[in-house]
Amino acid sequence: MAKRSTVLKVSKLKRAFGPNTIFDNFSLEVRSGEAIALTGRNGAGKSTLLRCLIGADRADEGTVEVCGNPMAETSAQIRRDVATVIDDLDFFPDLSVVEHLDLLARAHGITDPDALVDEVLEEVQLVPQSGQLPGTLSSGQRRRLALATAFVRPRKLLVLDEPEQRLDTEGVAWLAERLRTERQNGLAIVFASHEPTLVETVATRVVELGAPRG
Amino acid sequence: MSTADHVIDDRSPEPEPLTPATPRELKGMIKDWRAGRATKHLSEAFHDAYVALIGALMIGAMIINVILKAQRVVSQCDSTSCVSARTVLPWAAFAAAVAAALAVSRLFGPVLASAAEGFWLLDAPIQRARLLGARLVAAIVTALIGGAAIGALVAALTGSSLTSTLVWAAATGLSAAAAVSFAASQQGIERHRLTRFAGAFFTLLGLAALLLVVAISAGWLRLGLSDDLGVELGLVLVGFSSLVLITSLVSAVRRLGRIRRARLLSGGALVSGISGAFFALDIGLARDIVVERRAAEIGHVKVKRGKGVGLQAIMWRELQRLMRFPQPLLVVAGTIIVPYAADALGMSSLTPVFAALALFVALIPTLGGLRVLTRSGGLARSLPFSPAAIKLASVAVPAGIAAIWAVATSAAYLGFGDGAVQRTVPEASLMAIATALAGLLGAIRWTQAKGVDFGAPMISTQAGAFPPGLVSNLFRGFDVCLLITAPMLLGLSPFWSLLIAAIAAVVLLNSMDAESLRAKQAEQQKALAEQRKQRNAAAQAAKQRKR
């Protein structure tokens, strides 16, 4: 069996808001082909932790490394390696669904992205909406588009915050299967979820936040 | 139990039929509710507002002072071309006011209702027309006052007499009111083509009037219009616009009850969104709401393949987006006239300032890509480039447009109108480049402005707590324009303006990286604290060992 390289290394991370400590001394190592599910009640700090992992929020203490590079959200190398689906994804109001995916694929150096874009579009069931502008999409369709942006580009680490949100049952089942395949193909995944099916199907390890860890 | 116990008394009185409330009663009820939930008396509100009043008076006095100074400068120019241009410019203001009134009316309704009114009142069995009548009147009166202010301002700034100023104020105000009334009558029958056509017509008319000013000043055309003729034409316009206002108003009132509820509510939702943004003094957010709304109305586009890879892909998409919705280009093209018109009116020294401000406003819609990529981190994070590289790619197309604009306006700085300052071709070209840079950099600064952080510690003032940056946010962009054009305004070499522009460009293009610099600084501080902790622990351990 090939040796799996460490993709994400988190050491002694601490984040507090005033007197409220969200997490302290949090360490984690994720290798390629591993999927870590973060679970816990609302307000346990899952989203805050994910934001710290991708550099969108700054931890008070501790370090985060991606493929050996210290985390810096503005670093081009980090942006090349890490694909994220959290709630702050924005869209160009005058670019259609398919044009967003085409732009992202080309920006990542894919010279002829048509086949890949079509495949992802089909998977997320947005083919009928391919020419629509994002402002006309339903919340579920916007979620699917956000997920598509992560699958249309190269990535070593995928970070998702409650990816099942606003998806129908069929959509959750598709996502679980897709993430499992991604993991089996060597992608490292860290995701927060409240959906037991997704956690069971995808995760190789489960970390429960807001509870004493043994 | 006897059967008599089960006899139903059928003599009980029949329930009286319910009478629907009148709109007046419903409005009265809402007024009562609102008054009951008020947290301040009127006198208290006035007491709190005194700082705002003093501020408004001060700013008002400053504006009037600027207008009077400008009028004095313009009135010194008494050549035929200046007088003719003075007579034509109020026409441009009239056309612009009508075009703006039509555009705003089409965007908001002009008749609209809030979500609460839609939920509670529009479903009630009342005459919708009576409920909406006040809204229509409010919209028309607003247009009347706004139009009159624009008409009076332009007429005064062009050095017109008091009579002429009053006539143009009335003509422009009544025309804007007639435009809103016309748009309302079209709203009642769900038709917008005529409103759109009229809007485009008056925009072109305004541009034509500005071109006429330039042509007269250049001596290509001689109109020989006198101030008296201008007043007479203005009076004709007053009569005609009054006629249109009355007929459209009658038609609009008749059709008020036919306006769909969805249409009324969408206008109301837009107003509440925009007013929320304005309360936070976030004009960028207000613009985002309008842009999103327009995009949602369009809904579907013909898909275009992208081109290139890497940063080229972003630049190509920017170009494609602009070609898809090219209206901003027309506005930028329209602003080419501004330096020529300013020079023609004898305001040579102020030309760079006016031209830069006009370009600044016109370029903002071309920077939509930069806005999306800087307002939240999500999309920028998914692109494999540094923020500075993304920013450069996003502004490449607008920068190209600004360069073309600079070439097209160079001749204006040569000394175009009668009595204008004469300059050499290299100096005029440098002035045009510096002015274009001022407009572009101002637009970039405005576009990437972050909303005010209400979570940050507040500044205590007599008017209450203010978040830092609340007021300065309003002047973002304008400051860069004025800073870069200031040397030219003071009669210094345009090289100074170019130097300031270069410094501003370096700061603005790296401002997004300021966050990463702060992050690095925080990391370094964290590492230093860690080392200090370790040193202290080691020293403590050494002490204990000694003991």
Which features characterize this protein?
heterodimer; A: 214 residues; alpha/beta; 5-stranded parallel sheet; 4-stranded antiparallel sheet; 7 helices; 33% helix; globular; B: 547 residues; mainly alpha; two-stranded antiparallel ribbon; 22 helices; 2 strands; disordered N terminus
In short:
Chain A has 214 residues and is α/β, with parallel strands linked by helices. Chain A has seven helices and nine strands. The model of chain A has no long low-confidence stretch (mean pLDDT 90).
Q: What would you report as the Rg of chain B, rounded to the nearest angstrom?
A: 30 Å
Order of helices and strands of chain B: HHHHHHHHHHHHHHHHHHHEEHHH
What proportion of the residues of chain A form beta strands (DSSP E)? Answer: 25-35%
Tell me the count of domains of chain B. Answer: 2
Quickly give the structural class of chain A: alpha/beta
Number of helices of chain A: 7
Radius of gyration of chain A: 17 Å
Which two chains touch over the largest interface?
A-B, 49 and 51 residues
Percent of residues in helices of chain B comes to over 70%
Poorly predicted segments of chain B: 1-5
- Give the spatial strand order of the biggest sheet of chain B: 1-2
Count, helices of chain B: 22
Describe the strand arrangement of the main beta sheet of chain A, using strand numbers: 6-7-8-3-9
First-residue to last-residue Cα separation of chain A: 29 Å
Describe it:
The complex is a heterodimer of chains A (214) and B (547). Chain A is an alpha/beta fold and 214 residues long. Chain A has seven helices and nine strands. In chain A, the strands form two sheets. Chain A has a five-stranded parallel sheet, with helices on both faces. In chain A, strands 2-1-4-5 form a four-stranded antiparallel sheet, covered by helices on one side. In chain A, α3 (97-107) crosses α4 (114-123) and α6 packs parallel to α7. The longest helix of chain A is centred in the last third of the chain and has 16 residues, at 169-184. The two termini of chain A are 29 Å apart. The model of chain A has no long low-confidence stretch (mean pLDDT 90). With 547 residues, chain B is mainly α. Chain B has two domains: 78-299, no CATH class; 325-450 and 470-541, no CATH class. Chain B has 22 helices and two strands. Chain B has helices spanning 23-36, 42-48, 50-75, 80-108, 115-120, 128-157, 162-187, 193-218, 227-255, 261-279, 283-298, 311-324, 327-335, 337-344, 351-363, 368-375, 377-381, 387-409, 425-447, 478-489, 494-510, 513-546; strands spanning 459-461, 464-466. A two-stranded antiparallel sheet of chain B has the order 1-2. In chain B, a hairpin with a 2-residue loop joins β1 (459-461) and β2. Chain B is globular, with a radius of gyration of 30 Å. In chain B, 39% of the residues are buried. The model of chain B is unreliable at 1-5 (pLDDT under 50). The chains are: A alpha/beta (214), B mainly alpha (547).
